[in-house]
Amino acid sequence: MISANLLAVFYLISGVLFILALRGLSSPESSRKGNLFGIIGMALAIGATIVSVGNFSTGFLYLIILLLIGGSIGAFIAYKIPMTAMPELVAGFHSLVGLAAVFVAISAFLNPEIFNLGSLGNIKIASLIEMSLGASIGAITFTGSVIAFLKLRGIMSGSPITFFGQHYINLILGIFLIGLIFYLCRTQIDIWFWTIILISFLLGVLLIIPIGGADMPVVISMLNSYSGWAAAGIGFTLENTALIITGALVGSSGAILSYIMCKGMNRSFFNVILGGWGATDQSSSNKSKEQKPVKSGNADDAAFLMKNASSVIIVPGYGMAVAQAQHALREMVDALKKNGVKVTYAIHPVAGRMPGHMNVLLAEANVPYDEVFELEEINNDFANCDVAYVIGANDVTNPIAKSDPQSPIYGMPILDVEKAKSVLFVKRSLSPGYAGIDNDLFYRDNTLMLFADAKKMTEDIIKSL
Amino acid sequence: MEIDPFIFRLSIFILSIFIGYYVVWSVTPSLHTPLMSVTNAISSVIIVGAIIAALAGETGNIFDTANIFGFLAIILAAVNIFGGFLVTQRMLAMYKKKKKDKK
């Protein structure tokens, strides 16, 4: 048994270690040490809690067994998961945090004595508010993440599901939830507590179904943020500093990532959350239906162009992840480098399905991270580069974002691919991208379309190099 | 007059949001995916609540409803803790600098 004060100190230390874990991510060198700090912080928090509870009877045995079961499942997933499946893994993990928060809130509600929150039917009002908020946000995180997982995994269609009055229903449910929490505090009747959880489960589903596949970077970041706020809510209930600090860190981290993603698309957060992008602007996509001439080429043409270039910039996008083309891409770049070509990579903030998605895939293919650049760092280099190789990206290169105020993506920061002397665009067809708009770049004189699967085309280019 | 402990916790909470804000802005964009997986792992510190819920209430009857929810939460959080930290580790190990020089 350790005193409550000592326990609080341990929780504080864990909190500090978690801050250092995030701090470490400011550069890849320090990041590995940061992750170690995080692990130590977690071990410390768990160890101190077990010692302070001081119960080493059968319950402790169950605890160890469950930790081992859960731990091995987690470790198994962590080692088996392919890097391309990272977005759905993160969504899946968020759902677990959400559900765990709900469960902890339920135990606190059913057995408030052990957390010093009063007694069943007579719980402190403040604690009751905190635990309902924690349970509610946790429940929204859970079902919301499950939907995000299903969409990312392709089990559920990525297209937005919208119906009449959707946002009003969500609004009414939200107001209803607040009313229920108020009622729960007045009456302490458990039926309200269960209703809060059920409605939150429903709300989580309704909030995520109208959001389309390519907006998933925002959704994942947002759910990341929610899982943090849920943890903080539980932290207040349990009067636990480690949970409060962590919840605040994770909550603000997710919020910042959502902001960065929205900025990368030049859309407001609410615009994304309210969903259905492609649905709003069929007008602008349909008017340019007439056939325009396109230059298309094969792998030999592409190899010839790149071999004789002095600098090449690679622009990867979600298509590269789908085709699993990152390894082939790196081999192609190696071959080019042997020919003395300078190659760099340009990453748009919203490329892929989650923040930093492309960077992880390139890192997996052993691309050194100091050859990979963010939009602001590299955008001026396109004007001086000979070839831009666009593989699986589309909307993020569309120059219409700069020229046509009518376009739905107007104002979105784009990679200035069109300034390169020639553009090689690997794509399966001329179909418009996610935003439903034609890419003007396809019809430019300096663009050569390479109609093929990203991986196959890249492999063919390697052969002819 | 004594200050309600809630205010202390609220102070910690608000200050931590600010720390989070500045720390996360300094995270390099190329590490945003590991950032998400590691935040996911650390938010599973909710397991401490689960452990208390599972173990502290024990008075002969360990399979009280409240305890069972505690045990369930322990499994979920454990999957997350191990999965989250290990997958982060795996990703971070892949970030390498340019090789010395191979020409």
In terms of topology, how is this protein built?
The complex is a heterodimer of chains A (465) and B (103).
Chain A: H1 4-24, H2 28-53, H3 58-80, H4 86-110, E1 118-119, E2 122-123, H5 125-153, H6 166-187, H7 190-208, H8 216-238, H9 241-264, H10 269-273, H11 282-286, H12 299-307, E3 311-316, H13 318-323, H14 326-338, E4 342-347, H15 357-364, E5 372-374, H16 375-378, E6 387-391, H17 400-403, E7 422-427, E8 447-451, H18 454-464
Parallel strand pairs in A: 3-4, 3-6, 4-5, 6-7, 7-8
Antiparallel strand pairs in A: 1-2
Chain B: H1 5-25, H2 32-43, H3 47-55, H4 65-94
Helix pairs in contact in B: 2-4, 3-4
Rg of chain B, rounded, reads: 20 Å
State the helicity of chain A in percent bands: 55-70%
Number of strands of chain A: 8
Please report which band the strand proportion of chain A falls in: under 5%, 5-15%, 15-25%, 25-35%, 35-45% or over 45%: 5-15%
C-alpha Rg of chain A (nearest Å): 25 Å
Detail the poorly predicted runs of chain B: none
Count of helical stretches of chain B: 4
Q: Which sequence of SSEs, written as H and E, runs from N to C of chain B?
A: HHHH
Largest sheet features of chain A: 6 strands, parallel
How many beta-strand elements of chain B?
Answer: 0
Q: Which class do the helix and strand fractions of chain A yield? A: alpha/beta
What letter string, H or E per element, gives the SSE order of chain A? HHHHEEHHHHHHHHEHHEHEHEHEEH
How many helix segments of chain A? 18
User: What proportion of the residues of chain B is helical, as a percent range?
Assistant: 55-70%
The pair of chains with the biggest contact is: A-B, 115 and 83 residues
Q: How would you state the average pLDDT of chain B, rounded?
A: 86
Oligomer description:
heterodimer
Largest sheet of chain B: none
Strand content of chain B: under 5%
